[in-house]
Amino acid sequence: MIMNLVVRQVVQVLFVIVAAPLLAGWIRQCRAWLANRVGAGLLQPYRELSKLLRKQPIVAHEASVLFVATPYILFTTMVVAGAMVPMITTRLPLAGAADVIALAGVFALARIFAALAAMDLGTAFGSMGARRAMLVGFLAEPALLMVLFTPALISGSTSLVVIVRQLAHHGAMLYPSMAFAAAAYVMVTLAENARLPVDNPDTHLELTMIHEAMNLEYSGRYLALIEWASAIKLFVYIGIGAALFFPWGITQSHGLAALPMAYALLVAKLAAAGGGLAVIETLFAKLRLFRVPEFLGTAFLLAVLGLLVRYLFGH
Amino acid sequence: MTPWSSPIDLLAALFLLVAFAMLSQRRLANLITLYAWQGTILTFSIAIVAYATDSAHLYASALLTGLLKILLVPALLRRLARRLDVQWDRESLVQIPTVMLIGLGLVIFAFNAALPIAAAGHIANHAIVGIALASVLLSLLMMILRATALSQVIGFLALENSLIFVATSVTYGMPMVIEFGIALDVIVGIFILGVFFFHIREQFDSLDINHIERRED
């Protein structure tokens, strides 16, 4: 029995770590197709990571321990977050370790360390990127929490496992209030993962970059870890979204027999979400930084509307 | 009606979502697209009610709504916007967060106003009434806040959509004659307003309502 649980947990963590760059590659490939380009292939992120891992990292003389430790902290927090989300099965040993609010806290921890490390060297771009990331983060976090409160109200618990069980019981049809939460969650996901309407992940343009500005001083394996961590972050965000809004297919049985099917469904959900993300990123232009509060304010209000609709319908 | 009330609830929520999206949309071309989406949701909800109550005239109504509000009216509006060359104009409206907050206040008001109806117990689905009332108020808010004539007209059409939505979802449709009458009114209204817009622009060089007000004094 214990063996069974450990196997589930280890397999999920390994799956998250290994498949995250593939998801990033899939999104890039979809964007390339939509822009009528050939694209670099699904495996390009792995090639980049292996090359970066082999390169010699260069660290500035003024860098403190914080600067060197941060890539490891980012990677670990994201893996921990990936271990706690019931993406495949609700019978996950670590899933009970933290509820959704603690999960938001784990993401906040990673963000604070990323910002501190970017400010560590005192370069202009690093500080600027850190400040912008904190601006986006402090606007996105309340919206994320409001989004999570709607399913928490429906299921009467903030634990993701209980939420998934309750929502899966309801069937394939979304609750009306969850439609609002889903719209808000998509907006928060775009902002938190430095995707296009808020931040362009492909450019190093000085005036607009947020996420890239924080990584400018990193190289070699440190940069590889940071890139990998952000790929895992996107993976986990989509995983949470799939658990909240499309909980069907997440197995609730004890046996291992249902797992392959659950993995296949998760891959299908991830592929669909990645394609959708690519469409959004192709259709929308990047917002000016001063429009970002407006964007995330809209997300927050939509989440509040979800709560209101939940009270109106009473279910 | 019980197995079909949950898709209608979901469609009602989506209807409100689109109303909010229209409120926060700055560009006219996107506004017209959102109007077409609202028409799509409306058509689906009428079709579901038609299937649930097994009434032929509601199927006809769904077909009429679909043709009119997904295809015809958006196409007419697009052509109008293109000929007036205003489709990519940006609305100079109040700050969007402020507008959204006002909208949220209206939604809370509408939901509270719908609760006594539930207490009276005449209507099975009071939540739909609340959402439709909220959509009506949001459309009115849009008409008040927009500066150009064409987007005010879209606000008016969204208002009409909300009324049809509540009529079909709560009372399972109006008599066929009335629905035909409304459909005809909408088309005639669009044609007349289209002619009107050209006159407004010839007279005042702009579709901005503020210009017209300034000219008069």
Characterization of the model:
The complex is a heterodimer of chains A (315) and B (217). Chain A has 315 residues and is mainly α. Chain A has one domain (2-313). Chain A is 71% helix and 0% strand. In chain A, helix 1 packs across helix 3 (65-84). Chain A is globular, with a radius of gyration of 19 Å. The two termini of chain A are 36 Å apart. In chain A, 49% of the residues are buried. The model of chain A has no long low-confidence stretch (mean pLDDT 88). Chain B is built from eight helices and no strands. Chain B has one domain. The longest helix of chain B has 29 residues, at 56-84. The mean pLDDT of chain B is 80. Chain B has helices at residues 2-24, 28-53, 56-84, 96-120, 126-145, 149-171, 176-204, 209-216. In chain B, helix 2 (28-53) runs antiparallel to helix 3 (56-84), helix 4 (96-120) packs antiparallel against helix 5 and helix 6 runs antiparallel to helix 7 (176-204). With 217 residues, chain B is mainly alpha-helical. Chains A and B meet through helix 7 and helix 11 of A and helix 1, helix 4 and helix 5 of B.
Helix count from the secondary structure assignment of chain B: 8
Q: Give the number of DSSP strands of chain B.
A: 0
The amount of helix of chain A comes to over 70%
Largest interface: A-B, 22 and 24 residues
Quaternary structure of the protein:
heterodimer
Give the N-to-C terminal Cα separation of chain A: 36 Å
How can the largest sheet of chain A be summarized?
Answer: none
Separation of the first and last Cα atoms of chain B: 57 Å
- Which spans of chain B have pLDDT < 50 for at least 5 consecutive residues? none
Strand coverage percent of chain A: under 5%
Order of secondary-structure elements of chain A: HHHHHHHHHHH
Order of helices and strands of chain B: HHHHHHHH
Let me know the average pLDDT of chain A: 88
Helical fraction of chain B: over 70%
